[in-house]
Design brief:
Blueprint (H helix, E strand, L loop, with lengths): L10 H24 L6 E19 L7 E5 L4 E13 L2 E11 L3 E17 L2 E16 L5 E3 L1 E13 L5 E19 L4 E19 L1
Antiparallel strand pairs: 1-2, 1-3, 1-10, 3-4, 4-5, 5-6, 6-8, 7-9, 8-9, 9-10
């Protein structure tokens, strides 16, 4: 089951809408300063390794005690794609679709992101920023119902320009706080997995138009 296939509550939709509205709103400020300057659109993707903090709870009957614990999550593959622009040399805005996939579970995030860029040397920049959006989580042992959640966090890393080409390489780390859930629930049995946070390091490549 896809992590975002079912939703118990409406708040993830409003969270995503607010995120994209914030991204669009922030864009007007730097665009006014840039005026006729090129917006410097970019698109690309990243591959890395990440993990998450996953809790579980279960009960066998309505009268039994509920057991709670934590699931050991191995480091696994992280993927992401981005589209955005740099309105100035020190600022960039972009949307990101990212995810981490385990053997029996998967997490997906959709976020609006803003980074402050700090030139370090010719063709080299450091960045630090934040993001807000929504996250979904699905576990094979409890995939009858999924509940998406708000996601927010930060990112940090470095960017290298490949000579005079329009391609940049990026090495970074992201951390997202969330409460996305995957659950099986009926009268006689309940099992629930909750993703408390998601983090991954990555190497990305982006093309600037």
């Amino acid at each position: 089951m896809h992590p975002l296939q079912h939703h118990k509550a409406r708040h993830p939709f409003f969270t995503l809408t607010a995120s994209l509205t914030l991204l669009a709103g922030l864009s007007f400020v730097p665009v006014q300063h840039a005026q006729a300057e090129e917006l410097n659109l970019f698109v690309g993707g990243a591959l890395g390794a990440g993990d998450g903090d996953i809790d579980y709870s279960q009960r066998r009957t309505p009268w039994s005690r509920q057991y709670e614990g934590e699931v050991d999550s191995d480091t696994t593959t992280a993927l992401s794609g981005r589209f955005g622009y740099k309105p100035s040399e020190h600022f960039r805005l972009y949307g990101e679709l990212g995810g981490v996939v385990w053997d029996n579970a998967a997490a997906v995030t959709i976020t609006a992101n803003a980074d402050f860029l700090l030139p370090l040397a010719d063709g080299v920049q450091l960045f630090v920023g934040g993001h807000v959006g929504t996250a979904g989580f699905s576990h094979d042992d409890a995939d009858d119902d999924t509940d998406a959640s708000a996601a927010f966090g930060g990112q940090v890393g470095g960017i290298v320009q490949l000579g005079d080409s329009p391609v940049t390489l990026e090495l970074g780390y992201r951390y997202s706080k969330t409460d996305a859930e995957s659950e099986d629930d009926d009268y006689y049995y309940n099992r629930k997995y909750t993703l408390n946070h998601l983090s991954y390091g990555y190497l990305g490549a982006y093309y600037h138009f």
